[in-house]
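$ run holo --ligand "threonylcarbamoyladenylate" --emit tokens
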Amino acid sequence: MSPTNPRILPYGTAAIAEAAALIRAGECVAVPTETVYGLAADATESRAVAGIYAAKGRPSFNPLIVHVPDLAAAERIAVFDDRARDLATRFWPGPLTLVLPVRPDAGIASLVTAGLDTIAIRVPRHRAMQALLEASGKPLAAPSANASGSISPTRAEHVAKSLAGRIPLVIDDGATPAGVESTIVMGDQILRPGPLTQAELFPGESRGPGLQIDVPGDPGPRLSPGSKEGIIAPGQLDSHYAPSKPVRLNADSARDGEYFIGFGPIPGTETLSAAGDLTEAAANLFDALHRADASDAPAIAVAPIPATGIGLAINDRLRRAAF
Ligand code: TXA
Ligand code: MG
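-- output --
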């Protein structure tokens, strides 16, 4: 492990220029988005994309999200229907990923889609990712910038610790605002709950049973069982976001030795939100898990989080952390 890598550069013109040069040279660079820090590489170069998989130790069947600067760029890569275009118009730039048919002639490396005929694509809002897209002039494949299966990064230091010696550069622009990964939508189905909720995405529509999410205490995975590919959003691997120690959910109080993460009226070693605010809790979630993981406590417990709105995404990530 190289003790000097990755370098951490504060967001600014110099950092973006250096990151863009690394991207054009086929390297990966960690950059914040409004959700979590991403590990970005040129989505049109298979060797660059292979570098992402290698740095993360990610199973090669798990495809990546491609980031583009705007809807026009997305339409050159994926085939939009009216529903997808409506969602894109309403929520881009922002924490929404659309799974759409990929245009075979768009030049996206097949390693990005892991051989699927669909692609996950989004237009991020964060200034750093937008600046890197503009400066590099490339569509950027970017999964969360952490070792595969471990807790997602919401701070530059999380990235540096998880990928030490494996990547050259992290652009540091502070904590990511949303704190959980983008909502992934395919057709009228939410494949991964995230900052944008079902009620915001599909107001007035009652959803089918495609996504079973987050009744606290329900241990099941939440993928549509009838999906053609078996795994629709392969990131729905059960163990994900996992700290290195046991995690107990829906706990009313700490047991001996536990690092207790509270919420609302239930206090703890620390709290996701003393006010019981779910948006604040989402922003704090992975940071709290990182602290709990780094603490001396042999186990982690988390207070119940209401499974409504972005609370669905919080419960989804917590259940995977506990799996
Ligand atoms: O907020 C986010 O989405 C962050 C930031 C960096 O943009 N990225 C992120 O990427 O969470 P990643 O690679 O950790 O998650 C990608 C998810 C996985 O669940 C993957 O299986 C799913 O997207 N995915 C990618 N391509 C897909 C496809 N063609 N069909 C279905 N799911 C797909
Ligand atoms: Mg991830």
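-- notes --
The pocket of threonylcarbamoyladenylate (ligand 1) is lined by residues 33, 35-36, 38, 62-65, 95, 97, 99, 113, 116, 118-120, 142-144, 181-182, 184, 191-192, 232-235 (CB under 6 Å).
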